[in-house]
Amino acid sequence: MTTSTQPSIQPSTQERQAALKAEIAASRDREALIKAQAKTHEDTWGKGPPFFSSASFAFWQEVAKGHFHIASCSACAHKFFPPRVICPACWTPDTCTLQETAGEGRVFSFTESHAVPTRVIPIAPVLLVAVDLDEGVRVLTWLMDTPLSEVKMGQRVRIAVESVLERPTYVARRI
Amino acid sequence: MSDVAICGSAVLPNAIYFQPEEDLAMRAIVAAAKDAGIRREDIRGLIGLTPRPSATQHYMSSHIASRLRLSVEYIAEIEVAPAGLCNAIRLGAAVIREQNLPAIAIYGSARESAVPTGDYFDLRTSRISDASFNGPFGMGPIAWDALAAQELLSAGEATERDFAEISVRLRNSALQNPTAFFKKPITVDEVLASRAVASPIRLLMICPRTDGAGAIILAREDIAQRDPGRAIAHHAQAIAHDGDNVVSEFAGRSFGHMPATRAAADKAWKQTGLGPKDIQVVEPWVPFSPMEIMVMRALGYSRDYTKETTVSPSGGLVSRGHPAVPTGFYSLHEIVEQLRGEAGARQVKKARYGMTASEAGNFNTCVVDIFARFDGGTTAA
Predict the structure, then answer these.
(1) Per-domain residue ranges for chain A?
(2) Which end of chain A is more exposed for a tag (fewer CB within 10 A), N or C?
(3) Contact residues of B toward A, CB < 8 A
(4) Distant-in-sequence, close-in-space partners of B101: CB < 8 Å, separation ≥ 6
(5) Nearest Cα to B334, choosing from B272, B377, B378, B280?
(6) d(Cα A103, Cα A109) in Å, to the nearest integer?
(7) CATH architecture of A104-174
(8) What is the rounded distance in angstroms from the CA atom of residue B51 to the CA atom of residue B84?
(9) Using omega within 30 degrees of 0 as the cis cutoff, is the peptide bond preceding A49 cis?
(10) SS3 breakdown of chain A: % helix, strand, coil, rounded to 5?
(11) What are the b/e assignments for B136-152, b being 16+ CB within 10 Å?
(12) Which residue among B132, B249, B250 sits closest to A50, beta carbon to beta carbon?
């Protein structure tokens, strides 16, 4: 058995205890803020969907005001969608920030679907599209006012917030 | 040869049942024990797949142990997704080895009919990929397979007629399977004329939501040796997750190319030294006909895969039925019957190896299991 001569990168017991104490305090502060966010989310969206999460809170507040965004990490600048609590690229927590987007991209695939949630039945069938935005992220949404026979793979579209079934919703339209 | 083997297997017919999940499960367990020819006293472990929230009885494994008067040394429940039965078999085999138990029972049951279709879409399928960003738009398993199927069509890799022919083949197989839900033949024209559900997927390309239950008896080598021609060895298992979601994080990612399935299959081939053509019978988790093309491709088969192996002789989920929690038992039961040479009119000749491919998401998780005859032989020509 060989003994490593490299210094340990693991924290000491004292360092661990200090970090735990700091995390408990930070968690308490964070939860107080998130509790307030959850209340605001419910005031805006009811019980959901969209369901509350701290990562997507700001996104849905902006949708309610009519604005669509993608997300990016303030630590490593990775762009992603939907918003997440931990950056999928660098694993830093709570770095998700909203980034403005033209919302333009291409239809990667599509389906005209009759199999929809109950709330959506009044507008079924819906044209469900996977849109690859120019920023390199994918968004799943509806392509509006387009008969199935006219939609094409690679079709250029723009995503924006509209009122659908009396609720602000981000949807795609052909450009 | 193996030190642990499947010695008993049973499934109830796919149907609409009025009796509760626990009763269905107990019937399956007792039938599997009878099939194994094993005494109750030798069943020393019980592993259940956690029932749906709609089930009346919770803590079901504990309930069943009491009702069947099973005094066990190991008891557990495993969430059905991803691939609960596959995990249960692996866990069960490890427990038998560690504790030197003669046998354990693994079971699952479901009454899909207890959940109305509207609730099914609102409360279950809408929450599988992303409950806020995908589900509310109608993204569920049918829709994501439709997006994948559209990719196949647009790339010229398949036609709607190809999808319909899969439905017809699966239905013809189901007609030979007494536990299958559908009992009448269909034609390609009928499939193509059936109602559009999520283009290009039509009603007769979709699995029926059925009720059912299944159980297996996993046993120690000395038990398996009592009847080695009927015992089935769990030859290999390979699991992969692609680190992605049904709706990918990345632009350009295909819905139909299933990297986790490729990774799991490659791992299984490396582990065993086998290749796709060494497997005589495959039961893939395919709830919609177009998906069969994608799964078989990802497992390493050619586009003419039906010439290379026998696919879903049970009728598959599309024609056999899909009672979501115990569906894996039905696929495994078909492999067991085939490798024993007990599949009747569905029997594949010279069967030695069988394979299941299970999944969660859009095959974001894939589990490939290879099974073999315990005696190392093959069924009759």
Answers:
(1) 13-100, 104-174
(2) N
(3) 118, 121-122, 126, 130-140, 142-143, 146-151, 154, 195-201, 247-253, 255
(4) B44, B45, B73, B74, B95, B220
(5) B280
(6) 17
(7) Beta Barrel (2.40)
(8) 11
(9) yes
(10) 30, 30, 40
(11) bbbbbbbbbbbbbbbbb
(12) B132
Nearest CB to A114 within list B134, B151, B198: B198
DSSP code of residue B120: I
Is A43 strand, coil or helix?
Answer: helix
How far apart, in whole angstroms, are the C-alpha atoms of residue B334 and residue B356?
A: 10
Contact: B133, A140; criterion CB under 8 Å? yes
Of the pLDDT bands very low, low, confident and very high (cuts 50, 70, 90), residue B270 is: very high
Answer with the residue of higher pLDDT: A102 or B245: A102
Q: Out of A49, A108, A113, whose CB is closest to B131?
A: A49
Q: Which chain A residues contact residue B247 at CB under 8 A?
A: 130, 138, 140
Contacts by B275-278 with C-beta closer than 8 Å and gap 24+? B275/B300, B276/B300, B276/B301, B276/B308, B276/B309, B277/B308, B277/B309, B278/B353
**In this model, does residue A3 exceed pLDDT 70?**
no
**H or E stretch including A65?**
none
Q: Which two tokens stand for residue B80?
A: 């059905």
Q: Give SS3 for B269.
A: helix
How many C-beta neighbours within 10 Å does residue A113 have?
Answer: 26
Question: Rounded CA gap, B226 and B249, in Å?
Answer: 52
The interface pTM score, or ipTM, of the predicted complex is 0.91
What type of residue sits at position B187? T
The CATH H-level (homologous superfamily) assignment of domain B4-115+210-224 is: Thiolase/Chalcone synthase (3.40.47.10)
A96 touches chain B (CB under 8 A): no
Q: Is the minimum CB–CB distance between A80 and chain B shorter than 8 Å?
A: yes
Please judge whether A82 and B132 are an interchain contact, meaning their C-beta atoms are less than 8 angstroms apart: yes
Q: Residue A116: closest CA among chain B residues belongs to which residue?
A: B138
B1 pLDDT band, cuts 50/70/90, is very low
CA B168 to chain centre: 20
Buried/exposed B182-197: b ≥16 CB within 10 Å, e otherwise = beeebebeebbebebb
Cβ atoms of A130 and A110 closer than 8 Å: yes
Say if the Cβ atoms of A50 and B133 lie within 8 Å: yes
Number of H helices, E strands in chain A: 2, 8
Mean pLDDT (chain A) is: 94
C-alpha B335/C-alpha B35 separation (Å) is 15
Q: How close is the nearest chain B Cα to the Cα of A13, in Å? A: 34
Q: CB–CB of B49/B107 below 8 Å?
A: yes
Amino acid at site A171: V
β-sheet bridge partners, residue B108: B214
Considering CB atoms only, which of A56, A108, A128 is closest to B139?
A128
Three-state SS at B193: helix
Which one, of A47, A137, A92, lies nearest residue B252 by Cα?
Answer: A137
- Amino acid at residue number A112: E
